[in-house]
Amino acid sequence: MIPDPDEQVLVDVRAPLREMIFPFLETIVITGVLWIVIGWFDAADAGRYGVGPLRLPPEWRNGFVYLWVMLVLWRFVLPLLRKRRRRMVVTDRRIIFRADGFRARPRTLAMSAVTWAEKERGLLAVYLQDSDLPVYYSGLPKIRKIARMINDPLI
């Protein structure tokens, strides 16, 4: 995704962090529920709150801590890393786009093949010379600015 040294970079954007709102809220709920359970195990070990007769092995508490770590990694950290890999670079000669995911490879469009770009229903639509249908890019911030820079790179 590194442009050539003689290319001028016009736009370089990554996926916006607003896409992580629901995974963040989900992580808060997971943390709250599991740490309430872990606190209940701690209270049971101390013999408080009427749970003294129910003695559970300490491995159960450690298992819930491990479960919490795995859920936070699975539901927050991995999606964060995956989404932050989405990137678009617009240079004076080409458009380079890499989608979400760890295995995504960059796709390149030559600026000479692009006729027009615009925002359509929250997506960036790039119209090409050889096609009647546009190429759509989703999940990008500042779509109007990107379309303006594609249409008139001299701005």
Secondary structure elements and pairings:
Layout: E1 9-14, H1 21-46, H2 58-84, E2 87-91, E3 94-98, E4 107-110, E5 114-120, E6 123-128, E7 135-137, H3 143-151
Antiparallel strand pairs: 1-2, 2-3, 3-4, 5-6, 6-7
Helix pairs in contact: 1-2
Please, could you describe this protein's structure?
The protein is 40% helix and 23% strand. With 155 residues, it is of the alpha+beta class. It folds into 2 domains: 9-15 and 86-151, Roll (PH-domain like); 17-83. The strands form 2 sheets. It has a 4-stranded antiparallel sheet, with helices on one face. The protein has a 3-stranded antiparallel sheet with strand order 5-6-7, with helices on one face. Strand 6 and strand 7 form a beta hairpin. The longest helix has 27 residues, at 58-84.
Summarize the structure.
This protein has 155 residues and is α+β, with helices and mostly antiparallel strands. The chain is 40% helix and 23% strand. Keywords: Membrane, Transmembrane, Transmembrane helix.
- In total, the number of domains comes to 2
What is the multimeric organization of the chains shown?
single chain
- Strands across the major sheet, in which order? 1-2-3-4
Shape: elongated
Q: Which structural class should the secondary elements be placed in?
A: alpha+beta
Instruction: From the alpha carbons, calculate the radius of gyration and give it in angstroms.
Output: 24 Å
Main beta sheet strand tally, sense and closure: 4 strands, antiparallel
- Total of DSSP H or I helical runs spanning 4+ residues: 3
The CATH topology of the largest domain corresponds to PH-domain like
SSE sequence, one letter per element = EHHEEEEEEH
